[in-house]
Design brief:
A hairpin with a 4-residue loop joins β3 and β4 (67-70). The chain has strands at residues 19-24, 29-35, 49-62, 67-70, 75-78, 85-100. It is mostly beta strands and 108 residues long. It has no helices and six strands. Strands 1, 2, 3, 4, 5 and 6 form a six-stranded antiparallel β-sheet that branches. The protein is 0% helix and 47% strand. It has a single domain, classed as Jelly Rolls (Sandwich), CATH 2.60.120. Residues 33-99 form the Cupin type-2 domain. Pfam families: Cupin_2. This is Cupin type-2 domain-containing protein.
Length: 108
Amino acid sequence: MEIIKGAGAWAPPSEAADWTEQLRTADLSVGTYCIPAGGTDDQSPHTEDEIYVVTAGRATIVTPDATAAVGPGSVIFVPAGEEHRFTDITEDLALLVVFGPAYGSRTP
């Protein structure tokens, strides 16, 4: 058992990173993705399945097939390869992110 400290907590993104990985195993990884209010989400589709849990903030998530408002408590599943982006970020957005398998592990 391990308590993952800081996972899902808001922290202002630095120039170096807006994503912090807090746990990594072969089968999954857990981290925090933060975007400030008015910020831009410039991520690309991932090669792993992904679950987002909104822990703070409000935004809209946009995929090719749907658009939805999200806020604290929202849980979003994004399958591997699906284009997705958070837009209209009206409050500092903190996301607990779970990748399965671990982030980047399917990248050639």
